[in-house]
Structures are given as structure tokens and as C-alpha cells.
């Protein structure tokens, strides 16, 4: 538990910051005076920040150590979020770009902290660390629904979240020892971007469908509950929490599941759970069933990224920091057009269609599952 505490608290506080912002997107959209397609384009600024941060993420972590990098970049992200709730469109785009930039560097640092603990102790903590991200999502979504129902403004809510994050980072700084200095100085030669090899590309294809569903729930799930199912802010917060409960329970047991069933089974089970959840969500216009559907989706997307991280660390070549940066780069490039595309579909077709178009990508994740253990994808073959 002592080894797990620092990464767990970092993931938890990061999730509080993230979900308190995204559950208030309807209010932020209204204050910006833009439609869903415009919001989707504005949200694109964060992936652009991610793209520009990736050449630096591995190098900064190697230079500063993951511990110090995480404890610097997460408070910067926190300080940006209150401004996102009050600035006009241009200011929102700039701040969201910076949010994506610093959050990308933090994500690499947090995953390296967990991976380093696994390598030093021989105990799996990556899944449980990500599990506390889900616990933070649960706590944050419930608090956000309560605060929205009490007419607390998004600015005040994000200010409270910022204070919590900074306090958590100060505590982690106080209780954790310094990381050892790197054995060799970082190599600054070569390409600015760490290009992915074939293995990392296949890993990204494997989890692509699951990752974009998770992003779709973050971006458009609250809109679906409020507009399609007519849920009030408090009920929407509770239903949204079902997604985080499913994700949290799965991640907290993820290390045990990895040992018991193996990565291939987990990827396939994840894809099936997500597909069933999407079908249930759009086919049954019921608040109760929507909660069950979001729970299934949460279970399904929970292990996608950590399976990608663990597979990359186990099978990638070169420095772990560079492999993780290459993984993030490839996933970002493959999903960069998704927020505006889904925003266009939500605005000009329907919110139902926004989720239905994701099903073929989920099927691709199911078929690519063998990549998790270094095997070839199991594409269906036509029998004659």
C-alpha cells in the first residue's frame, strides 16, 4: 500500500480535475455561445497540445525524473481549468491547448512512476493506480452533479478542484523520496518525435476502438443524458457515475484479471462489454438502463490503455519513456479528428448516431486482441 499511495493519489486528483471540467461542458458550451460542432472543434485544441508535447515528454521525464515532472505539470493543468470556464472561445482554445500540452507530459510521468514501482518491487500496481483514476471519476462526477444542482458555477467548482489537486501534489512531494538520477544523460540526437515501430502501431490499432469510446463518453455522455434522456443535472451526475463505477471496479481488479485470464481474453471481453453497453444505451431510452449501459461501457474501456502501456513496456524497444511517448503520439494522431467528427454528427444527425458509429471500431479491437501477447491479429477468414 505504501508503494501504491503516491501514484494512486496522483491519478485520483487528476481524475477529480478532469471530470469536474467535462461534466460541466453543457454550461461551458452555453457560456461560449457555440453549438456542438463548434465545441467539438474547440476540444480539438487539446490533442494539438498533446502533439506538440510528445517530443518533449520523454526527455523532460528523463531530465527531471517522473516524480518531479508529475508534481510540476499537474498543478499547472489545475491552474488552467478555472480560466476554461469563463474565457471566450479564443481564450478557451488557448487554455485547452495548454491543458492538453501539460497533461500529456504528466500522463507519461504518472505511467512511468507506476511502471517503475512494478520493476523495482515485482508487484503489479499499474492497474490499481489507474483504478484510482476511476475512483476519482466517481467522486468527481457525484460531486459535480450535486454542485450543478445547487447552482454552483463551473468557475467556483474548478477553483475548488484546483485547490484539492495542489494540496494532493504537495502531500505526494512531502511523502515520496527523490528518484535516483538517470544513469546516462538523455540523448538529444535524432528526431524530435519518437516514431512508433510496428509493434506500437499494432498496439494502438488494438485499443483504438475502446479508447475513442471512452473519449466519446467523456465528451458527449453528459449531453446524451441531459438532452436525449432528459435527466436533470443531479440524476445525470449519478448515471454518469455508473460509468466510473464500472471502470473503477474493473481497474482495481485489473492486475488480478491480467494474471488469471491473460491479455487476449481481457481485450476481447472489453470489446464485447463496450458493444453491449452502446447497444443498450441507444436502444432502450430508460434512465435505469442507461445507468446499466454506462456501467458496461465503463467495464469495457477500463483496461484498454493500461493494457497498451503494459504491452508497450514489455515488448517495446529502447527507453520506456520514449516507447510511451511513441504510444501516446500514435494514439493521438489516430484519434485527433474524432472530437470534431462526433461533434458534427451530434449536431447534424443525432446523439444516438454519435455512439452507433463507434461499433465498427470496437469490432476491430476485438479482432486485434492477439497483439496483446505478441501474436498476429485474428482476422476472420472466408471459408470456401
Automatic annotation (TrEMBL):
GO terms for molecular function: transmembrane transporter activity. The keyword Coiled coil does not apply. PANTHER family: BYPASS OF STOP CODON PROTEIN 6, INNER MEMBRANE PROTEIN YBJJ. Pfam families: MFS_1. It is a multi-pass membrane protein. Its main location: membrane. CDD domains: MFS_MosC_like. This is MFS transporter. It comes from the Bacteria. The chain crosses the membrane at residues 7-25, 37-56, 90-110, 131-148, 160-177, 198-222, 234-253, 265-284, 290-312, 324-345, 351-372. Keywords: Membrane, Transmembrane, Transmembrane helix. One of its GO terms (cellular component) is membrane.
